[in-house]
Structures are given as structure tokens and as C-alpha cells.
Amino acid sequence: MDLSDFDVFRDFLHETCGIFLGENKQYLVATRIRRILAEHDLASLTELVSALKRNRHTKLRQMVIDAMTTNETFWFRDTYPFDYLKQTLLPELVSQGRGPLRIWSAACSSGQESFSISMSVEEYRRSAMKGLHREVEIVGTDLSSVVLEAAGKGEYDHMAVMRGLSRERLAMFFEQKNDDTWRVKADIRRRVSFKSLNLMDPYIGMGKFDIIFCRNVLIYFNADLKRDILQRMHAALNPGGLLFLGSSEGLAGASELFKMINCSPGIVYKAL
Ligand SMILES: C[S@@+](CC[C@H](N)C(=O)[O-])C[C@H]1O[C@@H](n2cnc3c(N)ncnc32)[C@H](O)[C@@H]1O
């Protein structure tokens, strides 16, 4: 691959979705983009970027984003955020305040995180003596249209349901449609909605949240963008709202905005 071609593409991806590719990612780009170049009769990455810049809202742009985002996810990832939600946060928060309790699952990929939150809420609701005093609203957002479409369907194949779900949860919260398809049941789906959002864009229109899950996405961004996103998430939280990050992620320059709370074996960040 021509090095200047790679640089042009790298800059484009960084400007468009914040994803920063290291020098050693040429092979990754080549393998992920090869098919798109062939299908659109484009000779190089520079030609691809020129085509993308000519028309900002093309299907081509979405294809490149879908190809270059890493959508790895699974159910109840890291366990502790969902346990802490169910055992500590929900009992506190559902008895306070009015209106729905709002949870944002930012960069939700194909929906496993958002539905794991809804299953945790349902488990809490069933165990609570008086049920839920407040409705819970979960908003899942992502930049990739392919994963959002999958999330919206709420259908998963055998491989996907094997990753992180206990037998009990699979039986309780899913219906089997055929040999290789399980669908999340309606009572879990009804409190979750999905929409497209690039985390680099303004969050106006999202409203305020009590809890934000923003996990395993900041790792792809540089320090300035991480800080900017964390500052804007802080602004999107209600006073004292809570933020879960991925287990290998930290507050990166925005530590003055949050207080760390130990929820062993992890941490949750409370807005100051
Ligand atoms: C590794 S997945 C994490 C999924 C889930 N949060 C989890 O922890 O399992 C990262 C997701 O971030 C999304 N993403 C990457 N850049 C983004 C951006 N600028 N805005 C919104 N989502 C983005 C990708 O499409 C991908 O689905």
C-alpha cells in the first residue's frame, strides 16, 4: 500500500469518526477496504477519500464506517456494571425523582449491552417487593448502521447467545425463532430504543441521563477527543449521575468532573 494513500485515509477516518489508526494498521485497512474499492471501481484509498469528500452522505461513507469500526461485544460484559446497577443503583434511584430513569448505552454495537441493562432492570423489578416506582428508559446509540440494524431487530444467532448469557437468562428473556435465531422478548425490548449517533457530534436532542455506559470505545480515540467526549457526557448527566467506562479505560483528563466510586472489582464515576 502506498504510504501517502494510507495517510490520506487515516486522516479521513480520524476526522469522520475519531478513530485513530497507528502506522502499523496498513494491513488492517487493506483487508477491510479491499472489497469496497473493487465494488466501486476505485483504484486507491486516495480515490476512495476523494469520492467520500465529494458527497458527504453516501452509502459509500456508511460502508467505510461499517468496515472500519470494531464491533466486538457480548452479554453482561465485565459483569460488575450490571450487578452494581441491579444491587445498588436501581434500589436507590427508582425511589428518587420523577419521570423515567434514563440510561444511555453509548457505542452500543449490536445491542448486547443495552439489552443486558434491560435484563438487569427486569431482574430487579421481579425481585423488588413493590415493583418499579419509575419507568426505565434505555437509549442505545452507535455510529455503524449495520450493528444498529441488528440491535433494532433484537435477534441473535447461536454464536452470539453463547457469549455471556447463562442458560437461565437465555430461557427467561429470549424466544427461539428457529435452529439458529433467538429473539429478545418484548418485555425486555420495550424499554430500549436505538438511534444513530456519532460521539463526535453534539448530544443535543439526547436529553439528560441518570446513568451512561460508554464502554470500550474511548480506546479508539486520542486524548483530546476522549476529554471532549467525557466533558460532554458529564453535561448530559443529571446532577450526581453515573458513568461506567470499559475496564481498561480511565477519565483521561476529565478527572476533575467525576468522583471515583469503587464497585469492586471495577469503578463507577459519579458526576460532581
Ligand atoms: C468494541 S464496541 C463496544 C460495544 C459495547 N459498548 C461493549 O462494551 O461491549 C465499540 C463500538 O463503538 C462504535 N464507535 C466507534 N466510533 C464511534 C463514534 N465516533 N461514535 C459512535 N460510536 C462509535 C463502533 O461502531 C462499535 O460498535
Summarize the SSE layout with pairings:
Blueprint: H1 3-17, H2 26-39, H3 45-54, H4 59-68, H5 80-93, E1 101-106, H6 112-127, E2 136-142, H7 145-153, E3 155-156, H8 158-161, H9 167-173, E4 174-178, E5 181-184, H10 186-189, E6 192-196, E7 209-214, H11 223-236, E8 237-245, E9 258-263, E10 266-271
Parallel strand pairs: 1-2, 1-7, 2-6, 7-8
Antiparallel strand pairs: 3-5, 4-5, 8-10, 9-10
Helix pairs in contact: 1-3, 2-4, 5-6
The chain binds S-adenosylmethionine.
CATH class of the largest domain: Alpha Beta
Low-confidence stretches: none
Query: How would a textbook summarize the main sheet?
Result: 7 strands, mixed
Mean pLDDT: 94
Instruction: Tell me the CATH architecture of the largest domain.
Output: 3-Layer(aba) Sandwich
By DSSP, the count of extended strands is: 10
- The proportion of residues forming helix, as a percent range, comes to 40-55%
Full CATH superfamily name of the largest domain: Vaccinia Virus protein VP39
**What percentage of the residues does DSSP assign to strands (E)?**
15-25%
Which compounds are bound in this model? S-adenosylmethionine
Rough shape?
globular
Radius of gyration: 20 Å
CATH-defined topology of the largest domain: Rossmann fold
Structural class designation: alpha/beta
Distance between the termini: 48 Å
**Discrete helix count:** 11
What is the N-to-C order of secondary-structure elements (H for helix, E for strand)? HHHHHEHEHEHHEEHEEHEEE
Number of domains: 2
Main attributes of the structure:
Chemotaxis Receptor Methyltransferase Cher, domain 1; binds S-adenosylmethionine; 272 residues; three-stranded antiparallel β-sheet; 2 domains; Rossmann fold; alpha/beta
